[in-house]
TrEMBL record:
Family: Belongs to the class I-like SAM-binding methyltransferase superfamily. RNA M5U methyltransferase family.
Catalytic residues in the record: 329 (nucleophile), 329
Highest taxon above the source species: Bacteria
GO biological-process terms attached to the record: methylation; tRNA processing
Keyword Protein biosynthesis: no
Gene Ontology terms for molecular function: rRNA binding; tRNA (uracil(54)-C5)-methyltransferase activity, S-adenosyl methionine-dependent; tRNA binding
Gene from which this protein is expressed: trmA
Record: residues binding S-adenosyl-L-methionine: 194, 223, 244, 304
Species of origin: Sulfurovum indicum
Listed name of the protein: tRNA (Uridine(54)-C5)-methyltransferase TrmA
EC number of the protein: 2.1.1.35
Amino acid sequence: MDCKHFGSCGSCSLYALDYEAQLTHKVSRVKGLLAPFFVGELEVFSSPDSHYRARAEFRIWHEGNRCDYAMGNIDRNGAVNIEECPKVIESIDKRMWPLLEKINLSSEVLKKKLFAVEFLATTTDECLITMLYHRKLDETWSHEAKLIEKALDCKIMGRSRKQKVILSDEFVTETLHIDDKDFHYIQYESGFTQPNPAVNVKMIEWAIRQAKKIAKGDFLEAYCGLGNFTLPLSRYFDKVLATEISKRSIHAALKNCELNGIDNIVFARLASEEMTEALQGVREFSRLKGIDLKSYDFTTVLVDPPRAGLDEGTIGLISNIENIIYISCNPETLARDLEILTQTHEVAEAAIYDQFPHTGHVESGVFLQKK
């Protein structure tokens, strides 16, 4: 990828290295962290070099009567106006610049006190644009936004303090071809989604390869989100219990289960600590009414925690399950958690997934089996 803003925009911090050098650096870093626990070869899943990001947010910088997109600068002490962003997928790229032009040339209403624009798009050319304001939005705003929505063939929402204006939908529907099958995912504007669809598919298929080695019993998942891993992996288990704390994500997961005709998954709104308490019989939760936890025979668990990694209780719980698939967005906390998990399990497979090219961020995964 080549971008005129390399070296000034803080979004891409590894601009001085070509992509292969970036990947080599990330592999070396993760290998070093996993060395005490894994002696095999890391599988490496690279990203497209450009047009890979399906979710993006840009500040709006006002200068005179003009608006421009802006990002934090490389020194983290200000912002830089941008004229291109080749990392966003094409369904965003083809709309973000006409949107800015229309706002600047023909709409004082849409421009007034606009401070950011968020894009959520799919590989099938759907795009949801959320415009954020420091003022209340009225019918005039809705009228002008609808005209742009039609012109750009997209969905537009407006947000301001305690206000959300939905013109058509507040979601997009992504279709990903995973494991020789199409899976459909409703993705909401305020919910978490994996930002790099191409690498996301590779990541899910890596997890499926591990699941196929087991292909029996029941499956437990923590931090399931909208069902990103849950839906494709459910094909290889009898019953699935998936937990997530976000109401919006659970709502999307239930919709996605219905959309894909999957009937062996139960979603429960629980934090990981609550999941541990429920499964160990420490507490009862009204949210689990009608779910017979004792009927599950978990042979496999998948965890995809936030950067802080797993809490002590969850580590204790999953240490009793035969197979563990651990997806991590922070290799340092993964290595920390493996110090405990490898007391009962051994790492059979490990991989990295480069969801964020041109940055130091890297996702990794390990498959552990009980000793």
